[in-house]
Design brief:
Elongation Factor Tu (Ef-tu), domain 3; 29% strand; five-stranded parallel β-sheet; single chain; RNA-binding; 8 helices; alpha/beta; SH3 type barrels; 361 residues
């Protein structure tokens, strides 16, 4: 039996197994599907290869082969300039400002569900389909049934209007089931490995990538407990809150325990370190909130849960909007909470909304 209404769907095909199976499922359901690969680099050789990436010549070829097997038209859209401005430059400037951005979250917001969706709707498509592991039911975003692969966190920035034109066909399947289905359908990407690295940093060395763009800038590493300088660095942007390795501290702590990055001050170029207990926070202030779930903006405290990083722990909390900011009080302390990361609120497995972490104490 065919779909209740035949939709014109633009399937974003990264060249990986997830987006290929997502496109195949939508086509099999009887919709009018067109595959599109987003060319995100003006120099594809500089981006990661052999991954789920979205950016290499290898990925473009894999996406085209998958579209041929599925039997759908296929195009490549050049989004390199927009991607560089909205994702890569944002990534660099956020680090320069002492924050720790999530480029995948920004890519979903600015590229896949702003630039691409806007163009798709202008061309007469009804929706954009992607291979994200998340469920979308009656416009409500929920976690995937495969908790280990759930990507609702990086979709938490999407607005209700964007979700109204999105399709996530894989949310009811585990990753293992998706791979089995790809093999059954004859898609050559069935065994292609996933990537957990930043697609535009070819060798995975974030610090070297930032140093190349921001330059070396020597500054002190200061012990929060004693106020003493215990080392030096070549750029505060090379650190993130909660980091323990690669600090190059000259003097060990008095108690012999490891130190962690507690804060990054870009103006004075100072990195402050201290014990793990000093990382613990209970109160978080976040900016630019987005309310995309079944609730309206909570001006009175609501009880819910929050996820503070991709594949991170979930914390019980109370949350409310005040002065245009989202204030979150955690039930138990969290560590490694970094400004620039997303805070995504959930009611069970339903996404309520999200905001960008500004500060935490």
């Amino acid at each position: 039996m065919g779909p209740t209404r035949k939709l014109r769907v633009l399937a974003a095909m990264s060249g990986g197994v997830d987006s290929a199976v997502a496109a195949a499922r939508i086509a099999e359901a009887g919709h009018d599907v067109t595959g599109v690969h987003l060319a995100l680099s003006s120099n594809p050789q500089s981006y990661r290869t052999g991954a789920r990436g979205c950016c290499t010549l290898e990925d473009a070829r894999d996406a085209r082969r998958a579209a041929d097997v599925i039997g759908i038209p296929f195009y490549v859209w050049d989004m390199a300039e927009r991607f560089h401005r909205d994702v890569v430059e944002d990534f660099v400037s956020e680090y320069a400002a002492g924050r720790t951005p999530n480029p995948c979250l920004r890519c979903n917001e600015k590229i896949k569900f702003e630039a691409v969706l806007d163009r798709a709707l202008a061309l007469g498509f009804d929706a954009v389909a992607t291979g994200h592991h998340a469920r979308l039911e009656d416009g409500v975003l929920r976690r995937s049934v495969d908790e280990a692969k759930d990507q609702s966190y990086v979709l938490g920035v999407l607005t209700r209007a964007q979700l109204a034109h999105a399709i996530f066909p894989l949310g009811g399947s585990t990753k293992a089931q998706v791979r089995e289905e790809a093999a059954r359908r004859g898609l050559t990407v069935a065994d292609k490995p996933d990537s957990h690295d930043i697609c535009f940093i070819a060798d995975g060395d974030t610090r070297a990538f930032l140093a190349d763009r921001l330059g070396a800038s020597e500054g002190p590493i200061v012990d929060a407990l004693t106020g003493r300088v215990v080392g030096s660095h070549q750029g505060a942007y090379g650190f993130t809150v909660g980091q323990r390795k690669g600090l190059h501290i000259d003097r060990p702590a008095a108690d012999g325990r490891p130190r962690y990055v507690l804060s990054i001050e870009p103006v004075s170029n100072t990195v402050t370190v201290g014990p793990r207990t000093s990382l613990e926070v209970r109160s978080i202030v976040s900016e630019r909130p987005v309310w995309n779930g079944p609730l309206t903006e909570p001006y009175e405290p609501i009880t819910c849960t929050v996820q503070l990083r991709a594949h991170g722990e979930v914390y019980g909390c109370r949350a409310q909007v005040s002065g245009g900011e989202l204030h979150i009080e955690l039930d138990r302390p969290a560590t490694g909470v970094a400004a620039g990361q997303g805070a995504v609120l959930y009611d069970g497995d339903v996404v309520i909304g999200s905001a960008t972490i500004a500060s935490a104490v």
